[in-house]
Amino acid sequence: MIAALVLGSCSDKAPDSAASAQPAEATASATAARAVTPIEFSGCVSPHEREAFEVYALRIQALVGAQSCRMTDRFNKFAIKFRGELTTEGKALRSYYQKKYGKSGDASLDKFVTDLSNTAFVDGSAKNDFCAATTALFDSVMAAPVGQLAAFSAEHRATALPALKSCDAVAVKRP
Fold this sequence. Notes:
Elements: H1 21-32, E1 44-45, H2 47-68, H3 72-81, H4 83-101, H5 105-125, H6 130-143, H7 149-155, E2 165-166
Parallel strand pairs: 1-2
Helix pairs in contact: 1-5, 2-3, 2-4, 2-5, 2-6, 2-7, 4-5
C-alpha cells in the first residue's frame, strides 16, 4: 500500500529558515550540467489513472522540494491535510502498475517513482528559484480545499511527469 509519507527533519536549523535557499543554489551548479533522461512511459492511461499519476507527481515534487529546501514541516502539513486523497491516488497508481506489469508491478512503480524524484530534483535544482518555487507550490496547494487535490494537480502539472497518452478515443493533449 502506498500512503502519504510524513517526514521529520534532521536539520538543526528551522525548517522554513532563510538559509534554506542556499543548499538548492549550491546544488544547482553541480546538477545543471547533468543531463536527465526524460522518464519513459509507454501505453495509455484512463482518466482515473491520469489523476493518480498527476496527484502522485505533485506529491513527489512537493517532497523533493521540501527535502531540498528544508521545508519538511510544510510537507508534513500538506501530507496530513490531503492524507485521504494521497492514499487513494497512491493505491490507484499501484493498481495501475500491478495491472500492467503483474508480479513486477511494485518494482516497476518503484523505478518510476525513483525516476520521477530524480527528474524533479535535477529540474528544480537547475533553476535559481527552486526554493521560492517550492514555497509558492506549498502556498497554493494549501489554499486548495480538501477533496480538490486532483483538480489542483491537473491545473498545476508537475514538470517531471512524462506525457501520458489517453486510452480514450479522444486523446488529451498535455503541455
